[in-house]
Amino acid sequence: MTELPRDRVYWICNPNNPSGNVLMKGFMDYVVRRSPRYAFVVDQSYEGYTKEPLLQAREMIDVPNLLMLHSLSKTYGVPGLRLGYITGHPNTVQLLRQHRHPWAMNALSIEAGKFLLKKGKPAISNLDEYLEETQRFRSNLREVKGVRVFETKTNYMLCELENATSTDLKYHLIHEHGMLIRDCSNFYGLDNHFFRVSAQLPEENDALVAAIRDYLEASEK
């Protein structure tokens, strides 16, 4: 295996955003444990939206060079709270405490988090059914001429436009259909031909596919 550069923190989003790819659990475990002199931050905010095996906090608690990020906001569908937590080796977490802001969260957010952990229900009640609909949505979107749709292991997927721009498509969908896609032109390595969509209800997914198809067909005339 190629040696990693020294003196770096490796930040890995897994499942990845915006692609929806998921790195294998065994590979992640191997890389982190084999490289104790490097620090790894693994962002698993979207862990509730995939069936792929991921690193588990209880299995990695003995690894001092790893911090894992988790999102209550995404797991429970409460994005306005912007609430999450970190798991890691006790010594690493203690070191992090010494450098964090003294008021990282307000009292209301803390109480909301406690409630969610005790009585909250995940935003996705049937993940198997949701991911099945995601693949149906992806298959239909792939049939639209001028759109490349990448594979995904989550409820969202990355798309690329051949000729149109994601910015123009975004504003068209907002103004004409009241729909919103994620313009990915500000992601490193991507440009204004990329956008991300997430699966919704079947009828909403079908409506989005139709709206994108109509826009691209009209733009070719």
Task: Walk me through the topology.
Layout: E1 9-13, H1 25-34, E2 39-43, H2 57-60, E3 66-71, H3 72-75, E4 84-88, H4 90-97, H5 107-119, H6 127-142, E5 147-149, E6 156-161, H7 166-177, E7 182-183, E8 194-198, H8 202-219
Parallel strand pairs: 1-2, 2-3
Antiparallel strand pairs: 3-4, 5-6, 6-8, 7-8
Rg, Cα atoms, Å: 20 Å
Low-pLDDT parts are none
- Count every beta strand, where a strand is a DSSP E run of 2 or more residues: 8
Major sheet size, sense and barrel closure: 4 strands, mixed
Broad structural category: alpha/beta
* End-to-end separation: 51 Å
Broad shape: globular
Mean pLDDT over all positions: 93
Q: Report the helical percentage.
A: 25-40%
Number of helical regions:
8
SSE pattern: EHEHEHEHHHEEHEEH
**Strand arrangement across the biggest beta sheet:** 1-2-3-4
Share of β-strand residues? 15-25%
Q: Which tags fit this structure?
A:
221 residues, alpha/beta, 4-stranded mixed beta sheet, 8 helices
Provide structural commentary.
The chain has 221 residues and is of the alpha/beta class. The chain has eight helices and eight strands. The protein has a four-stranded mixed sheet. A four-stranded antiparallel sheet has the order 5-6-8-7. Helix 1 links the parallel strand 1 and strand 2.
